[in-house]
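Hi Y.,

Following your request, here is the sequence exactly as I used it, all 106 residues.
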Amino acid sequence: MSKSIITLIVIAGLVSSVAAAEPPSAEHGRQLFGSTALGTNGRSCSTCHAGGKGLEDVGGFDDAKLEMIINQCIQKPLKGQALATDSNELKSLVIYLRTLANLDSK
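Below is the corresponding structure, written out as tokens. Let me know if you'd prefer a different format.
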């Protein structure tokens, strides 16, 4: 293999590891909320909860309860795999749902 191909492989690996190490954020949660990638049936969280519909009470749940609810929705309505409780994806969804609760209270 030439040195330039090896260099490209190393750079690609570094870029992907930096992207994977991004901290949880509301923006990432918003993207996941609208993505069909969490499930297997072509639906997303926003299919049932467009604009945060039905999520008015999330502000009253602690993070553990909210994580459980999110994973139940991923597994049942979306037909997907539950997210790990320590994953940036799950934490990002929690952060995003909290922003929706804040909008409802204003």
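The chain is about 55% helix and 0% strand.

Thanks again,
Q.
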